[in-house]
Amino acid sequence: MGKVARERTKYHLPAVDPTQPIDLDEELEDTDVKNEVDGLTRGQRRRRERRDRFLKKLDFASYVQNMQQQSTLKKTKKPLGDFSSLTTSLTDLNAEFEKTKQEKQKKLQPKGLSQKRKQHILLREVQQFQSVLSHPVFQSNPFGAIREHLNNTLQAQATSMPPTIRKAKR
Predict the structure, then answer these.
(1) Which of 13, 109, 158, 167 gives 20 to 30 Å between its CA and that of 137?
(2) How far apart are CA 116 and CA 122, in angstroms?
(3) End-to-end CA distance of the chain, in Å?
(4) pTM reported for the whole predicted model
(5) Which residues contact 45 (CB under 8 A, 6 or more apart)?
(6) pLDDT 10s digit of each residue in the chain, 170 long?
(7) How many CB atoms lie within 10 A of CB 101?
(8) Would you say 28 and 37 are in contact if contact means Cβ atoms under 8 Å apart?
């Protein structure tokens, strides 16, 4: 195997055109030349370059983090704006509607029963209860009698209802 040919490295800046005036305020582009002008040693230059590379990575990391925060903020924001005033007005309207609905239902409810009517209903219920207690089927099997009564009552209600209401109840 033969020798590996290396490329020539640059040891100096290109020649300056003597016809053009020299600007001393001009920034030097080559980092090696900048460091030599600053009076830094080779180790100091190396440390500074490593630090600059590290800071560049940190800047990129913070940039990515900021972009992620902005994307999460965009996700949390509502795309069409804020409808809180609309929702509050709708809830107020709904509350007013419910209030008027309850007032109408109160008006439609029958007036309170008179004392005489209540007394009459109470007497009828006591008589009905006494007749149930004295019935022989109830005395022999109370739960069976109640079950039979409920089955008969439900069948009677089902046959007396219109067909549309029966379908909706199921």
Answers:
(1) 158
(2) 10
(3) 95
(4) 0.29
(5) 31, 32, 35
(6) 678 888 877 777 777 777 877 666 554 555 555 545 568 899 999 999 999 888 888 888 888 888 888 888 777 766 666 677 778 888 888 899 899 888 888 777 767 778 898 899 999 999 999 998 899 998 999 999 999 999 999 999 888 877 665 555 55
(7) 10
(8) yes
